[in-house]
Write a structure and sequence with these properties.
This protein is of the alpha/beta class and 348 residues long. It has 13 helices and 14 strands.
Length: 348
């Protein structure tokens, strides 16, 4: 009987210093580290065989202990509106989803940071799935690097499965790869991280990264918000807002607030006016989002007339506010709908 195969350590997600240490340990010349870093990030090599300026001996040495970290999507579904939902496997035989959203002048990829989610927001299918595990830096980045449409990407949003700030270290490492000169060298303006507001991690994120921030607000009244967002009990919205106000969003970095509209719950004029009061003095924008219902969902979505009336109220008070177009709803790829049924096959 064959022994179980040993999981190889992925290079995707490692810094140049990490790769230098590997090369030193394996007895490779120092310049090899620069070549490998270039192959992993600039040329997006999927295998060591592609690294043609490395000797065969050094490629074999790498192959014996490491992988590039690249794994193609296991499955995909395409929506009638052009949105594509990709299923990726993780090393512990679970699955995550990423959503590619093409538009006329841009193409956005919505990526996951966890398998499932611990936050238990009652309006979210991922939250109802529960939590199965953290993604490694390589598994976060693989959703980008192994995307068939990579060359068309203009933006990445950490808005898929999971709470990014609940997996802070791998998320920060992945953001460094996207924006560092030795990595993809993207402008931080191309990347947005979405959170429901875990304050200690939020502070570290705001200190260590310059990418845009999106906060899931959904109700300005704390007593109401905690009924469907349990995080409110640990990290009240008022504390989240006061933390954000300590940082500078008056230049290139942007903060926005996500607001899913629930019929008769958070869509009144009273809610709109409290939203305005809450963010007073903060340069920000609001995205109003239609609620996408699912079996067993505790809410209905607000109708368009109510949504646009809410938008008008915020705009009249001086806030920048847009209504987000729903994409990929027919393949369960819209906001709040990501949930991998395949993971249930692996839960015993």
């Amino acid at each position: 009987m064959e022994s179980a195969s040993i999981t190889k350590t992925p290079l995707l997600g490692m810094s140049p210093d990490d790769i230098k240490e590997i090369c030193s340990r394996l007895g490779m010349p120092p310049f090899t580290a620069t070549q490998i870093t270039d192959w992993i990030y600039k040329k997006r090599a999927a295998s060591f065989d592609e690294m043609t300026n490395l000797s065969k001996k050094n490629r074999a040495l790498l192959e014996s202990e490491y992988s590039t970290g690249r794994t193609p999507p296991a499955e995909y579904q395409k929506s009638k509106d052009g949105t594509v939902k990709y299923l990726f496997s993780t090393e512990n035989n679970l699955h995550i989803e990423a959503v590619y959203i093409p538009e006329a002048d841009r193409a956005t990829l919505c990526i996951s940071s966890q398998v499932g989610c611990k936050m238990n927001c009652s309006f979210c299918m991922t939250g109802r799935q529960g939590f199965q595990g953290q993604l490694t830096t390589a598994e976060i980045l693989n959703q980008i690097f192994s995307l068939p449409e990579f060359e068309t990407l203009t933006n990445v949003v950490y808005m898929g499965m999971g709470e990014p700030l609940d997996n802070l270290k791998p998320v920060l490492q992945s953001l460094e790869v996207l924006t560092a000169e030795w990595g993809l060298a993207w402008s931080p303006k191309r990347v947005t991280l979405s959170t429901i507001g875990i304050v200690p991690a939020l502070e570290e994120f705001l200190e260590k990264s310059q990418v845009h921030l999106a906060v899931s607000l959904h109700d300005p009244f704390g007593e109401e918000r905690k009924e469907f967002m349990p995080v409110q009990k640990a990290y009240p919205l008022s504390e989240v807002i006061s933390t954000i106000k300590r940082y500078d969003f008056s230049r290139q970095r942007r903060v926005s607030f996500e607001y899913i509209m629930f019929k008769g719950v958070n869509d009144s004029r009273r809610h709109a006016d409290e939203v305005v009061r809450l963010v007073n003095g903060l340069k920000c924008r609001f995205n109003l989002i239609r609620f996408h219902s699912f079996p067993g969902a505790p809410f209905e979505g607000s109708d368009d007339e109510t949504i646009f009336r809410f938008q008008d109220r915020l705009k009249a008070k001086g806030l920048t506010c847009t209504v987000r177009a729903s994409r990929g709803q027919d393949i369960l790829a819209a906001c709040g709908m990501l949930s991998t049924e395949k993971n249930k096959e692996n839960v015993h």
